[in-house]
Amino acid sequence: MHPDPADRQSQFLRAVDCPVVVLAGGHSSRFGSDKALVEVDGQPLLRALVDALHRQGHSEVSIVADRADRYQQLGLTCLVDHTPDCGPLGGVATALQQRLQSGPGWLLLVSCDQLVFRPEWFEQLALHAVSSQLQNLKQHLNPQLRLQEQIEHDVVHFVSGGVSGEGRVEPLPSLLHTRLLPTVLERLERRELSLQKLFAGVAAAGVRADSTPGDWTFNTPHELQQLVSNRTSGFPA
After folding, report:
1. Please, which residues have CB within 8 angstroms of residue 201's CB and are 6 or more apart in sequence?
2. Which of 206, 113, 218 is nearest to 158 (CA)?
3. For 65-120, what is each residue's pLDDT tens digit?
């Protein structure tokens, strides 16, 4: 019996091999306080999110904030944002620079206000991190071959709005390749800080879904209360 193609694809980018960077330490102006520290189920959200990502197989989870000790009370040390006051794009640059220290490759970028992060979301993104056309060709030529080649995409992100139409780019969570770093630095220098515009200007793969991780993020206390009320499960094991 031949393995399912999706199972073969998922071998090429596994959670254990994909470091995660959580963007935190923003102003949270609409929330009124630091969203990363809000307590959900008796635990600070950022601590719960980091623990969930570890349980889901990501061996390396880092946090980008404005200072190294910002979340010291949670037992977490942060990467210091090299370009503060530049919004998420500054954190992206810091994350990619950190990733590049261990060699070129992918990282998973997540927001600190991600109330729920399900393992299948990473798998959906990971399936697009290698070329399906190249995989199918080489798998046909040699079914035993484990492919190492990656597509030329620099970004894999979710697209909200179902399976038809243009949809809307959901910049977080997303998979970013270190190939993206020069473009990010150029945009920072020009003060072009929009992640949506960045993704629109590079080679990006959009993953369409009726329900995306963006449905489980929040900006205000009322939005958080609604999500907690609607949640059928907490942080998946």
Report:
1. 183
2. 206
3. 999 999 999 999 999 998 888 999 999 999 999 999 999 999 999 999 999 999 99
- Ranges of residues in the chain whose predicted pLDDT is under 50: 1-11, 132-133, 136-137, 139, 147-150, 233-237
Here the contacts of 73-78 (C-beta below 8 Å, separation 24 or greater) are 74/37, 74/44, 74/46, 74/47, 75/47, 76/46, 76/47, 76/50, 78/24, 78/25
Residues sharing a CB contact under 8 Å with residue 123, sequence separation 6 or more, in sequence order:
10
According to DSSP, the β-strands at 79-80 and 43-44 are: unpaired
Which H or E element spans position 205?
A: strand 204-208
Burial of residue 77 (CB within 10 Å: 0-12, 13-18, 19+) is middle
Rounded-to-integer distance, Cα 92 and Cα 201, Å: 16
Residue 36: per-residue pLDDT: 95
Which stretches of the chain are DSSP H helices? 5-10, 45-55, 87-100, 119-126, 132-141, 181-189, 195-200, 221-230
| pLDDT score at 142 | 57
> How far apart are the C-alpha atoms of 166 and 180, rounded to whole Å?
23
Query: By the 8 A CB rule, do 177 and 203 touch?
Result: no
Backbone φ and ψ of 202, nearest 5°: -125, 175
> The tokens of 13 are what?
């980018």
Pairing of strands 79-80, 61-65: parallel
Task: With CA atoms as reference, report the closest residue to 15 among 58, 54, 62, 60.
Answer: 58
Closest CA to 24 of 58, 53, 52, 65: 65
What pTM, to 2 d.p., does this model score?
0.84
